[in-house]
Amino acid sequence: MYQEKIITPPSGYLTLVLFLALLGGSFYGFATENFIAAGIVMLVNLFLVLPGLIINNPNEAKVLTLFGKYVGTVKTDGFFWVNPLTTKKKVSLKARNLNGHQIKVNDKLGNPIEIAAVVVWQIKETAMAMFAVEDYLQYVTIQSEAAVRHLANIFPYDNFEDEEATITLKDGAEKVSSLLEGELSERLSRAGIEVIEARISHLAYAQEIASAMLQRQQATAVIAARKLIVEGAVGMVEMALERLSAKNIVELDEERKAAMVSNLLVVLCGDRNVQPVVNTGTLYS
Fold first, then answer.
1. Considering the entire predicted model, what is its pTM?
2. How confident is the model at residue 83 (pLDDT cuts 50, 70, 90)?
């Protein structure tokens, strides 16, 4: 495994002055009809001096190899001169975004879901990125998809079917993102790549079960709402009976209390407006 070796080559400005001087000398030789010397100087200038000049932009690196052997990496921005026989490969050190494609995968409970992730990454070890993997861009894409698939397989989408699940893909965003980032860092470290951030960007049930899951969620919401309504209605009935008894407004036997409770629960829990009925007779008729 190659380890990055950072080098700082000499400045290219002095070499540029030498190039211009040799170029002027070759022109002078041609002018004075000294063709052999002028030709040699021109060849040296074009094939040994000029090819060694490189410009390194900010957040950019040049990986140098000489006859198949790794020489070093230039990370300092500026104008330099290196061995003209070396092969120079440019590598960007800027942070990049990978907007993963939506993939279909089964969650922990076997439900088909659609999931995608956004990964922010950058190259830290240029030698590993160039020599440890065939194509580091393709490597990042494939390994990111594999990590997302693995993460989806170990957690349920939600806790409707698994109430004991402490982490779900839907509700555990921070924890899931942290686990995804950790797994990606481990996978991509082989290529000298640092994962800055990883987030789930898309999460939904697959189309074939989306409608069924929506109905289930709606049913769960209706049950929860009904439960809350019933709890509130029972509390109001209890309060009404206590207030009537405390102020001695009316005395009700058990049968009339049951009838009153039934009527109040119908009024409070019903989902339609209640039509009042006026009793013009006595309490017992």
1. 0.70
2. very high
